[in-house]
Amino acid sequence: MAGRPPAGRSVHRIKLIPGSAPSFVPRYRRAPHLEEESERQADELLKRGKVQPSPSVFGHNPVLAKKKDGRWRMGIDFKPLNKITAKQKLPMPTVEEILDRLQGSAVYSAVEFVPPIHPEDRHKTAFHTRSRKPEYTCMPFRLVNAPAKLQGPQSPRDGW
């Protein structure tokens, strides 16, 4: 999804604290099998259009966690980016409040909403593997304002 986001679609903005330097963490040294897994998962994200090549000065490290079934889950360590991101403080419902709202309902549904990242902010999500540096085109896990973005209906004009 290069260029401008579709009209009427809510996009995620990453606003930095004024005066912040770009967050860049040198690539960690990893065991060869973990390097290969990071490459494989980055390839998969690229094929699915979740990331695109990046020339960014930002750079973060992938983190791999083993799942119960033995496969690996890749996440990105966005702690350095989160430190320099302006926090969006919105009231969030508690689990109890959400469950109370569901009582008495006969039909439940789940919707996966993964907002795109505004094209001007994608470079801030860049991460590095051994052979490439991609950036996210849609909101990844572990961004500081992701819960606020996903917690309720928001306008594309809201700037977040």
TrEMBL record:
Residue ranges, compositional bias (Basic and acidic residues): 32-47
InterPro entries per UniProt: DNA/RNA_pol_sf, Rev_trsase/Diguanyl_cyclase, RNA-dir_DNA_polymerase
Region of interest (Disordered), residue spans: 27-62
Stored CDD domains: RT_LTR
Coiled-coil parts of chain: none
Superkingdom of the organism of origin: Eukaryota
Name of the protein this chain belongs to: Uncharacterized protein
